[in-house]
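Entry:
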Amino acid sequence: MIEVHGRIHNFPREIKILIASFLVLLSIGFYTGLLFVNETTEIAPDGIEQQYLGNEDVIETDVMLFKKSSREILTLVHNHILSLSIIFFILALILSTTSINKKAKHFLMFEPFVSILLTFGGIYVMWTGVIWFKYIVMISGMLMTFSFLASTLIIVTQLFKKK
């Protein structure tokens, strides 16, 4: 079995720069997406509900929202599950080469996949009428964001840490 724990410290300089560049651009895209989420839901359970189920029953509103169609919701769920799975798979591969505590590493490698399923599967379940799932969506989305932030910070610090 090939041991990859701690190998990041021995990567050639150009590979370290490539990984750091990738993480910077990936982070810009990820956090831009969070800005969009904030803009559309105000990162609140009711905002999440209204974004996907509409707000036609709210009399005082700035923007009228309508329930997403099945095509819209399936496209959103499909695109996000596929793209975020690839992103977190690549992050997990890079993270696997760090020299951090193995339990913390394994948590950060595998937790995002649970959060992806709960966040975007939860959006679909909420859309079908299980309204309380908006809380699952919010909590799992926050956990996914924490995992992304922690993983990228750990990788960047390990890339340039002298062993």
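The chain has one domain: 11-58+68-159.
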